[in-house]
């Protein structure tokens, strides 16, 4: 194993379990890591390097007055056709899907990312971000049907100037916590409850 990956895995293992897990999805270089860094340290550094392997950001905050530990997982989406390991999705409470408004191909690939995410996480809340709007603000006048088609909250953002960055992370953290508190019912739960309730046999 690469020493850097091994070091990060060891550090992650030593952290106490998080209350919430949020995953980031999207092609390489759409700005996923930069959005997180902007949110966590309110600083932005121009870099062209893709995220190396897996990065997990730990964020400690308060939601509704309760201390909340949040893990934000990021991976280098070097190829939208390279499936992520199922462990990346395991236990996720919410997802952030990102595309780059300056590269149409990253928008076209959203369907691949979304399909895979729903395979492993059929019901977690997900929001869609159109990043790098600082390059051309005219793009904010356009409509993007993907969000509407899939019923996703949609935001225009910029890691470079911070537009909507705090807002989207506050939004997804609350959605994740709500999902954890009130997970959707599953078919298995319905069957088990039906088997438990023998009144229908009377």
TrEMBL record:
Protein name in UniProt: Rab-like protein 2A
Pfam families reported in the protein's UniProt record: Ras
Keywords, alphabetical: Nucleotide-binding
Organism: Blepharisma stoltei
Organism lineage string: Eukaryota, Sar, Alveolata, Ciliophora, Postciliodesmatophora
Superkingdom as given in the UniProt entry: Eukaryota
Membrane-spanning residues: none
Record keyword Nucleus present: no
Keyword Metal-binding: no
Molecular function as annotated in GO: GTP binding; GTPase activity
